[in-house]
């Protein structure tokens, strides 16, 4: 009945089969389950049965706090996007019965595609770099144009006071680490507190949109087939997504042939037919400040985890993001 090898602590294949049978999904057919990825907070497995190809997403072996709630939240977002023009893995089913895998998990359709992170794989060439970059921007614009108010996400998130909460939220999280002092932090938080956007039009935002969280078709022109890893999605200011993408994209595509930051922003503006602020430094500082705090948390936890000495280097990454925020301030 089962094929392949999978960690039984994470996926009990026999119980999974019973659950699938109960849903009427390829009832009684052989199944093949294989690890796909495993991160700090989530683990994924391919599940092939009959003619169906799915991906199972569940909390990691060492689950983070409120992991089951995170699964329900991510499923809700993806489920709301079903039938839209936002490229994403369509949902199949959510399981909240802890008797199946011992946790809440969900099943989604497997999406074909390759990662667009440079260098692009064959058969892409340097001439395809602009089309891939603009395809990423187009996918982000489609997400931000999604009418969340007319979907099942109408009561999702708290867009009111989004920016007013940012400094307190992230400084409180940083303080909870009880770690080292970060030089220049006060300057960054003071700037953010004193330069809040006057207004913005809330959108469903991904929260971590970059080339490592997307799949593109395996051949040119490289249309985005799916945006993945929605665990940080919320209703908020879409420009934070855009600038975060530009910040990461700029670091990964320093070579020739890739569109410049200004071209990516212009493409986004054209796709959404809107005016953008002439000064986007607030978003640049906020994005890098937020990333510095997140990486600092990973670094501080690694100091107490002898099994993950590789994560100690993340501390340098935290300092790098904070330094980038300070550079933006210096350039104003």
From TrEMBL:
Residues 33-254 form the Aminoglycoside phosphotransferase domain. This is Unannotated protein. It comes from freshwater metagenome.
